[in-house]
Amino acid sequence: MLNLERLRTLDALARHGSVSKAAAGLHVTTSAVSQQMTKLEREVGQQLLAKNGRGVRLTDAGHLLAEHAGRILSQVELAQSDLEAQRGRAVGELRIAGFPTAARGLFPAALAALRADHPGLRVRSQEMEPEVGAAAVVRGDLDLAVVLDWYNKPLPVPEGLAKASLLDDPADVVVPADHPLAARAEIDLEELAEDDWICWPTGAYCSDWLLYTLRAKDIEPRVCHYAEEHHTQLAFVAAGLGVCITPRLGRGSLPEGVRVLPVRQGVRRHVYAVWRADADRRPSIRAAVAALQAAGEAVA
C-alpha cells in the first residue's frame, strides 16, 4: 500500500519543482525529502525522479503518480474536514500565515485566544507576503492566510478560496520632525513629490502599490532606500533620510524624531483571511477566523 506521507512529498515536489522548495513547503529538511522519495520508488518499483542539471525532475512515472497523489491528498483533506465538522470541535493542526504587520498586530491575541478556547487545536504560524500566502493556501501548504488589498489596488485572489473581512487599516505618511510639513494636521501625497522615499523592497506587493499610487498622481517617486520592516523604514525617517507610508496595524511605538501625518484623501488597507472553500466546514477554520476578527475589532 502506498504511504500517504510519501505521496505528500511527491505532490510537493510536483508543485514546487525542486527538492529545496518542496522541503520548505513541507517544513522538513531536503534530506528528509530525498529519503521519502527513495522509499517511494522502492514501494512502486519504478524510478520517479531523474537528475536534471544540479536539480531533479519527475520522470513520466513520477508525473503519473503525482497526478494520482494530488487527487488522493485532496480526498484525504476532504475526509478530514468532514470528520472534523461531524465532530464539531476545533482539533488537530492548523497552518496559518500572515504578512508581517498582521502577524505582529493580530496573531498574538488571536492565537492566544485559540489556545485558551480550543486546547485540542495546534496552530503553526509564519510570516508570508499576501500573494505568496494566497498561493500557498491554494496549493494546500497552508490552511488559512491573512492577506490584504490596498484601497485602490486589489490583490488577485485565486479561484476556489473563501474569504472573511478582518479590518480596515489606515496608513499615514511619516516625515522627519524637522520636515517643512511636519506641523500640518494632514497632507496630500502630491506635496511630497520632491521628497526622497523609503519603500518596501522592489517587487513586493506593497512596493508595487506605492509606485502605482504615486504615479497615478503624476509623481515619479525618488526611492533612495528599501527596507522590508516598517520599524527599519521609520528609523530611516528619524535619521532624516526621507519619508514613508506606514500602516497603523502592528506599528507599535514610534521613534523620536518623526511626525505622523494622516493623508487627506485617505489611504487604507483592507485586511482579510482566505482559506480553501472546500474546507469551509472545518470548525478549526471557523474558530481561527472568529479569533482573527475579534483581534481585528480590538485593533480597529
TrEMBL record:
InterPro entries: LysR_HTH_N (IPR000847), LysR_subst-bd (IPR005119), WH-like_DNA-bd_sf (IPR036388), WH_DNA-bd_sf (IPR036390). PROSITE patterns: HTH_LYSR. Residues 2-59 form the HTH lysR-type domain. The keyword Transcription regulation applies. It holds the Pfam family HTH_1. Keywords: DNA-binding, Transcription, Transcription regulation. Belongs to the LysR transcriptional regulatory family. This is LysR family transcriptional regulator.
